[in-house]
Write a structure and sequence with these properties.
The chain has about 475 residues and is of the alpha+beta class. It has 17 helices and 14 strands. The chain has helices at about 20-30, 35-50, 60, 70-85, 85-90, 95-100, 105-125, 140, 170-180, 185-200, 225-235, 245-255, 260, 280-285, 290-300, 395, 450-460, and strands at about 155-160, 160-165, 265-270, 305-315, 320-335, 345, 370, 375, 390, 400-405, 405-415, 415-425, 440-450, 460-475.
Length: about 475
């Protein structure tokens, strides 16, 4: 009798037994989609569930193979927060993190290292030694000679104060950051990337297509970063940059989306209804002095008499304009009180680097004028979901201030809490016909005045403040 061949039958999902299990399944579907706005909200929803029903997140771990590499990177941001402060939510992902750490996908590998370092701070369990195993397709790399040309230079598309990346500019930006982290030329990496890309056509990841409604953002499904990371991983395999701190490499190559920022909603500012937005902002957007006068009080609002602001970034919007105001504290050597200064940026606003004194820092501590904070660049998928006002390395190297082991937004001196980070929102704009993310917000570092006064008394320096205004015209 002829054998009857039956088609393979895949096990169907079990029926959710509670509203939380249903929510996890729903959010999981969103993670696989092309709707970036809903993905951000899904991650925030999953983090809320992690606080009350952490075991329900096991569904995501059990279905890990169903996620694309970029979706996995996003979930690992959630796992990073769990490793720091929610051990029951972390437990289902522990083996996944180990597998990513031992693997050859450099984006997942570096993020897994960040997670294991967070786990080390919380539990004392030492992160395993960093290893760079050879990928199976090693022969593919060895057979490719560097191209004679570099990446075609196509400018990024400005979107107010942000830029929309199209592919080649991702490569150029990452290479600039890699050069800054390694202090080494990377022109050969650019040519190797071109050769590898020519031999291996870009393949975009599969995503489930969901409607992108007015104001929402869509996933930029660009494989250029993936190809570049494969080339960089090959260089690591053969021993290149072995003396470069892993934290600096991670700052250069990881995305700038910060879980301690985007998983929490900002708190309302005490004076939010007084912030200048929309038509009132347009009336003064051409006058930076007026902008400074109007916005500086909001940077200081709500700070008590025994506290001071060390650094801050405030964003506000109209339909046609982005405005960023940057506030910073400067430490000046005697005789340099009148020296002009420029705004200084750093490459990534991720908090994991704050725990290492080997992190990349853009200023030389021997300079006569030192900044307490920097504004932040980076490549992120979620808009402004990073620490945009980043602590200088002198906090640790000079003042011996350190972030709390489980909360990088609380800093300590000799075990005493002295500094906190605040993320506040302004008035809620009517964003009909506008991008949903264009809502005013403020990030700032608030320090005890006692600590601040001790700096002034112990160091023979002059302390001053600087205020910069950046304006970008919006076009969609």
């Amino acid at each position: 009798m002829q054998r009857i061949e039956l088609p393979d039958v895949h096990q169907l999902d079990s029926v959710p037994r509670s509203w939380s299990e249903f929510a996890v399944r729903y959010f999981f579907r969103i993670l696989k989609s092309n709707n970036l706005t809903r993905i951000e909200l899904a991650l925030r929803g999953l983090w809320s569930l992690a606080q009350i029903v952490p075991g329900d997140l096991r569904y995501i771990a059990e279905n890990w193979p169903c996620l694309s590499s970029s979706a996995k990177e996003k979930v690992l941001l959630l796992v990073e927060s769990a490793a720091a402060s929610a051990p029951l939510a972390y437990e289902p992902f522990s083996e996944i993190v180990r597998t990513c750490y031992e693997g050859v996908d450099l984006g997942l590998k570096l993020q897994a290292w960040v997670i294991l370092k967070a786990l080390e701070r919380r539990t004392g369990e030492v992160c395993p030694e960093w290893q760079v195993p050879m990928p199976l397709e090693q022969e593919t790399y060895l057979s490719i000679f560097p191209a004679k040309r570099g990446v075609l230079d196509i400018p990024s598309i400005p979107r107010g104060l942000s830029f929309e990346l199209h592919g080649n500019d991702i490569v150029q930006t990452l290479l600039r950051r890699l050069k800054g982290a390694t202090i080494e030329g990377v022109e050969d990496i650019e040519r190797k990337y071109v050769a590898y890309s020519d031999a291996n056509p870009h393949e975009t990841e599969h995503v489930e297509r969901l409607a992108i409604n007015q104001g929402q953002m869509e996933v930029r499904n660009l494989p250029h970063r993936t190809h570049l990371l494969k080339v960089i991983y090959h260089e690591l395999c053969i021993g290149r940059w072995k003396d470069t701190p892993l934290v600096a490499l991670s700052q250069a190559l990881l995305k700038s989306d910060e879980p301690f920022v985007f998983l929490q909603s900002p708190s309302p500012a005490v004076d939010s209804e007084e912030w200048v937005i929309d038509h009132d902002l347009d009336q003064i957007s051409g006058d930076k002095r007026s902008l400074k006068d109007r916005i500086l009080p909001h940077i200081q609002a709500g700070v008590s008499d025994d506290e001071v602001v060390l650094g801050a970034v405030l964003h506000t919007y109209s339909r046609s304009t982005d405005v960023e105001v940057v506030f910073n504290t400067l430490l000046r050597n005697r005789g340099f009180e009148l020296m002009e200064t420029n705004e200084v940026t750093t490459m990534n606003g991720r908090t994991f680097a704050l725990y290492s004194d080997e992190r990349f820092d853009p200023q030389d501590a021997s300079e006569p004028v030192l900044r307490m904070t920097y504004t932040v660049g980076g490549i992120g998928e979620f808009n402004n979901q990073s620490v945009l006002c980043y602590p200088s390395l002198i906090w640790t190297d000079v003042f011996r201030w350190y972030p709390s082991d489980n909360n990088p937004f609380v800093w300590l001196e000799d075990g005493k809490r002295i500094i906190r980070f605040e993320h506040l929102h302004g008035p809620v704009r009517d964003i009909t016909q506008d991008q949903l993310h264009r809502q005013p917000f403020l990030q700032r570092w608030v320090c005890s005045k006692e600590t601040f006064e001790k700096i002034k008394s112990e160091l023979d320096i002059t302390i001053s403040q600087e205020l910069y205004v950046n304006i970008g015209n919006v076009r969609y």
